[in-house]
Every structure is written in structure tokens, then in C-alpha cells.
Write a structure and sequence with these properties.
This protein is α/β, with parallel strands linked by helices. It folds into two domains: 1-165, Alpha/Beta hydrolase fold, catalytic domain (Rossmann fold), CATH 3.40.50.1820; 167-253, Sandwich (Lipoxygenase-1), CATH 2.60.60.20. The protein has helices spanning 38-41, 70-74, 80-104, 117-121; strands at residues 2-4, 29-31, 53-57, 112-113, 152-156, 167-177, 181-191, 194-195, 199-206, 211-218, 225-233, 244-253. The strands form three sheets. Strands 1-2-3-5-4 form a five-stranded mixed sheet. Strands 7, 8, 9 and 11 form a four-stranded antiparallel sheet that branches. Strands 10-6-12 form a three-stranded antiparallel sheet, with no helix packed on it. The chain is elongated and about 70 Å long.
């Protein structure tokens, strides 16, 4: 059974006979997309973990792209009817949109087991364990033989619009150069299956010899990494023409460690 943002009002906190529960089927996976409190946030979805695997994309409360202004949302690419529904219940409806996208992307929507979304964002639950990460949506049942008795909360990030899946990488850059500067460092990944856009690793004071690490959610699964493009900018014209390079760049793939 797959629960697509199961209802919160009149169901959250009720006995298991009343609501969806892991005892309802051999395998129950749940996608939580609108689990903020009904009062005052108008959340329609249930917050507690209730299945064998509970996925909380983007933290499970506010979905990217649902904060567009009302006009742009109602006059949507998918038509006025779809846009109006999204304006009223955008977070709630993301659950079925993620599910339908997951059919097309069998390797997408990896869920990282983590105590909280904040810890996931900080990189504490990266990479996937040796047994791999479950995938949210249609292919979640590929993981059913590894499910334990306790509840498993899984976190991931998605894009604002179709196509929704993102792939997580840990990128560490050790800088080289003669003097520290103010600016930012961007990195793009290239691989056997394509390349990502530029992702910012750090901004502020850039000091040669220091290592800067970021967890990036890339819009592309690049496959086997073959090349990394390093770019830096100091934001303004500097007459001393400072030079900065990368002594090393390390990329760790969440999916395959």
C-alpha cells in the first residue's frame, strides 16, 4: 500500500483501525508532503511515521514551487483547472506528482534514513548505507525485504517542478593560491550520463589551503564522474588580479558511496 500524503484532520492521532497503518498490508510506504499543523498552517497531511517506510521530501511540510504567486500558479502550464487545484492544495497534491514521476525515474528520489530534516540537510546521514537507499514512490517495494520493525523516516530534496528528482553529491574543494580573497566557488559535475549545472560550494572569504565542503542536490544523475569544472569569482574588479585554483576536488556519490 502506498499512502500519498494521508489525511491529517480527523485521522492523525486516532487508533490504527481508523487510519492508515503498517499493519494494513505486507508493505506500506508513505509520502508526506503537507504535514504542517492544520491550525494555523492548513496542512492536510499526517505528520507521524505510520508505514514501514515514511518519506519526507523537502522536510514533508512545504514543497518547492508551491510558494509561487497565485496568478502564475493558476495560469499554469498544465491548465487553469490544474493550476487552481495547485493554488488551493499544492503541497498536498505534490505526493501524487512525485509518485507519477518516480515511475519514469527508477533511480531517482533516493530517501536517506535520518532522525530529522535538519540533520539530513547538514549531511549527517550521507551517503547511503552499504545496502543502499530506498527510493520514494513506485519502486519503494524493492526495499521491503530490508525493512526493520521500527519506523524509518527518510529524507530527500526535489525540484520545484517536473521533472522532480534530484541526486545528492558531497563535493569538497581544497583551494590553492597566494592570498585569500572574497568571492564564491562553483562546481559542475560531468559524467558518462551527462552533466549538471553549476552549484555553489561556498561564498565569502576564500583562503588557499582551506577545504570547503557542500552537499549538492543535482538535477542530473551524471553516472560515473569523469570531469569536474571549477569556477571562482571575486565579485568585483580587483587591480591585484588575484589567482585562485583547486588543489583537489573530491566528489562522493550518495547512491554508490
Amino acid at each position: 500500500l502506498s499512502g500519498l500524503d494521508p489525511a491529517q484532520p480527523y485521522f492523525q492521532g486516532t487508533p490504527i483501525e481508523v487510519r492508515l497503518d503498517k499493519s494494513d498490508a505486507e508493505f506500506v510506504d508513505v509520502i508526506h508532503t503537507d504535514s504542517a499543523p492544520t491550525i494555523p498552517n492548513l496542512g492536510f497531511g499526517m505528520k507521524p511515521a505510520i508505514g514501514h517506510l515514511d518519506f519526507y521530501p523537502n522536510g514533508g511540510e512545504e514543497m518547492p514551487g508551491c510558494d509561487k504567486n497565485p496568478i502564475s500558479q493558476i495560469v499554469d502550464l498544465d491548465g487553469i483547472w490544474e493550476g487552481t487545484r495547485d493554488f488551493i492544495a499544492c503541497n498536498h497534491l505534490r505526493s501524487y506528482k512525485y509518485y507519477s514521476d518516480s515511475i519514469i525515474y527508477p533511480d531517482g528520489f533516493l530517501g536517506y534514513a535520518c532522525p530529522s530534516y535538519d540533520l539530513f540537510k547538514a549531511g549527517n546521514c550521507f551517503p547511503c548505507p552499504e545496502a543502499g537507499c530506498p527510493t520514494m514512490g513506485h519502486y519503494a517495494d524493492r526495499f521491503k525485504d530490508q525493512v526493520k520493525n521500527d519506523f524509518t523516516k527518510l529524507y530527500l530534496n526535489t525540484r520545484e517542478a517536473k521533472d522532480f528528482p534530484l541526486w545528492r553529491y558531497k563535493v569538497s574543494v581544497t583551494l590553492s593560491g597566494n592570498s585569500k580573497v572574497e568571492g564564491y566557488v562553483n562546481v559542475a559535475l560531468y559524467g558518462t550520463d551527462g552533466n549538471t549545472k553549476q552549484h555553489q560550494i561556498t561564498k565569502g572569504t576564500l583562503k588557499p589551503g582551506n577545504t570547503y565542503t557542500a552537499y549538492i542536490d543535482a538535477e542530473k544523475n551524471v553516472g560515473e564522474v569523469t570531469k569536474v569544472k571549477f569556477l571562482w569569482n571575486n565579485n568585483w574588479v580587483n587591480p591585484t588580479l588575484p589567482k585562485l585554483g583547486a588543489a583537489t576536488i573530491t566528489v562522493e556519490v550518495g547512491q554508490t558511496r
